[in-house]
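Propose amino acids for all 248 sites.
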């Protein structure tokens, strides 16, 4: 596992033109580790959570370390919340360069496809698929202005077809759909300067992954951060783990 190291800001990232990143579900776990790493890379990070209090608490910890992090309330399942944040970002920043669609939920490991509660399936799709889709539709126009963007959809190996099993049907189907959305967005945005990729962070010690997982949040954040900071001409439309492409 390669460690992401901070770098100095380039002239294009000085005050007034500093690149701006938005991370969903960033008050804990992988999202918080991604927000921290991107701020260490010199970006201004918009740290979002479903409640403003949660976002403010997480941002305060990073701000105390001298990192440029701004807390914002965001519920990716609420179009009004997404639109409100888009207007705020446009007014206060005038740009968005990096979008990390990290917010995820409903790892339904106790369910089976033949008997799954379809209300849970619907909720999983709303958070894990429609939420990122809402965010992309809202913020891609800001990326187009500068012909630069990096979109990272935090996905999962559970959403691939290479080793299917019966576990977590709602979560797996929602992540498989997110993978296809990644491919469609990448194709739609080819030649615009906007790269779109999906990342599998592995089994990470988070509220969802549990205490026995084999990776820390920082290790899980490595590939999303790498994808978020790709140079021009980098890969697009792929699924990556440990900075390497993996089969869909």
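Proposal:
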């Amino acid at each position: 596992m390669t460690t992401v190291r901070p770098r100095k800001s380039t002239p294009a990232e000085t005050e007034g033109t500093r690149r701006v990143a938005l991370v969903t579900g960033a008050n804990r776990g992988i999202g918080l580790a991604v927000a921290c790493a991107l701020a260490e890379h010199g970006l201004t990070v918009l740290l979002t959570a479903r409640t403003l209090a949660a976002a403010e608490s997480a941002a305060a910890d990073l701000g105390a370390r001298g990192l440029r992090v701004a807390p914002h309330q965001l519920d990716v399942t609420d179009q009004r919340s997404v639109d409100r944040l888009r207007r705020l970002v446009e007014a206060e920043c005038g740009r968005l360069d990096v979008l990390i669609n990290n917010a995820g939920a409903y790892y339904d490991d106790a369910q089976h496809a033949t008997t799954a509660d379809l209300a849970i399936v619907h909720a999983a799709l709303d958070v894990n698929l429609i939420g990122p889709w809402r965010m992309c539709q809202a913020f891609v126009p800001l990326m187009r202005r500068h012909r630069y963007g990096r979109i990272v959809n935090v996905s999962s190996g559970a959403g691939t077809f290479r080793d299917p099993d019966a576990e977590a049907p709602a979560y797996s189907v929602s992540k498989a759909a997110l993978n296809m959305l990644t491919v469609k967005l990448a194709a739609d945005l080819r030649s615009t300067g906007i790269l779109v990729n999906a990342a599998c962070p592995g089994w990470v010690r988070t509220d969802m992954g549990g205490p026995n997982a084999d990776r820390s949040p920082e290790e899980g954040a490595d590939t999303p951060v790498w994808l978020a900071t790709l140079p021009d001409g980098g890969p697009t439309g792929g699924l990556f783990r440990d900075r390497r492409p993996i089969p869909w």
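The longest helix spans residues 118-146. Confidence is low (pLDDT under 50) at residues 1-15.
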